[in-house]
Write a structure and sequence with these properties.
13% strand; alpha+beta
Length: 176
Amino acid sequence: MFGLYPAGPSWIRHFNGSTQARELQQLLVKHAGFTAGIFHQPFGPDRGAVVAQKGSFLVLGSDIDAGNPELAVVPDVQTQNLLWSFNTGYANQWSDRELRALTGCTGWDALLRQVTAEFGAICTFVERALDGSLVPPAPQPDPLLSRMLADDDDAPWLPSDYLFDSPMPEAPSCVR
């Protein structure tokens, strides 16, 4: 279904979905920080519709409404073109300044390390979403709240200015 992409076969990972693409999209967005795709086809018809995106990688689905869609994780178009340039010997057409502007990486080694790590992490997220083990990250404790509430046994905590007198005289609650 998906065919080959410019970056080559080493930059695609296939999955067989066990849920609909829209449900997978919701899991990835809520629990893994992905951006929801609009189901467009960046590589042309019958090459997969974008279910979700994270960083420079896309999760493509073969059939959006199918119960068990085929899925693929691939680099986005820009990263595909950069990887194609590297794999086919045209890496020298990109200066370090251009690579830094496009990707934030200072050279090809840094770019390949970043893309490889990102590819592995995204494939892991998709695997976990498909097998049901993707859970939301644990919320971080609020550092301000933990500093404010000192553990003084059973004594109530009051702000430091709570017991100071008000500069204005207190008016009766029912003025007639």
